Amino acid sequence: MNSPENLTPDPLLKNLIFMNSVDYLINLTRANSVWPLTFGLACCAIEMMATGASKYDIDRFGSGPFRATPRQSDLMIVAGTVTHKMAPRVKRLYDQMPEPKYVIAMGGCVIRGGPYVKYGYHVVKGVDLIVPVDVYVPGCPPRPEALLEALFKIQKLMKREKILDKTRRTTKPEVYAPQSV
Amino acid sequence: MGLGRDEIHSIVKERFKDAVLEDHLEAAEPYIVVRPDVIEDLAYFCRDDERLQFDLLSCISGVDYPPRNVIEVIYCLDSTSQNHWLIVKVALPRDNPRLRTVENVWRTADWHERETFDLLGVIFEGHHNLVRILCAEDWEGHPLRRDYVMPETYRGIKNVVY
To answer: Which of A12, A90, A162, B81 has a CA-to-CA distance to B35 between 20 and 30 Å?
Structure first.
């Protein structure tokens, strides 16, 4: 009784109806309309802007409307050196984003402090000390192609979401220690 | 073209006499070292003197020298009308570096002095708003001092040392 054939008796209409799981459909729409947060901290942001501009054109891949508010965005591209002075602001922006949210750590400074790793008193040694990171993009700064690759990885992650999974991606603890180095 | 460095140095020495402690014309970038207490007078003199007309303060910076137990504050003066320049250094004791502000002479000095205060702890007396400019307000210590030790954590964020 509940098979698709019974629900759509009209043979013409049958070809127009597409049946799949809710997860698949929601994830498909989500992964093809990624809205990143307009947010750049240093030189990596220039490459991020190049990624959004006409030559690399992030819009081709279903992303690109850089939102001016964290409440409307689901991807945070941390592009540039995160200083201790900036860290609380980054954390606050992340906290204001609605679930599910994703983070790309773009560039060496964001991953582990980059050139400031040893003597940089003012640089947070990796943004993953403040917010959970999904994809790391090494480079100084990374090429726009590398950022696009990171976007594809994010889209893959998005397609794995399950809407009924309550334990899914909750905000991780305030500050958590990095893996042993 | 403006005055030569030797002429500028002699004009300053003529006015400030023994307050000019050292005169290094032979250096690659000639400079004079003056006594800390004359710095404001010297600033006014350099700006208002007809021959000098130093209307631009390019930079104030500081260097920490633990072996000599001094912190040097360096003023780079520039004259846009005369096209000449002068470098003035002041040596201050490391344990109590205090200096008169020149922000009333050149407005530019405001932020430069705040930076020197932030990173080296030089206190500019008479400055209207001597607070940190680069580091966060609750930062401890002055990072460009040679004996500065990086804090282990700052606001709960660990400063991992690799």
So the answer is: B81
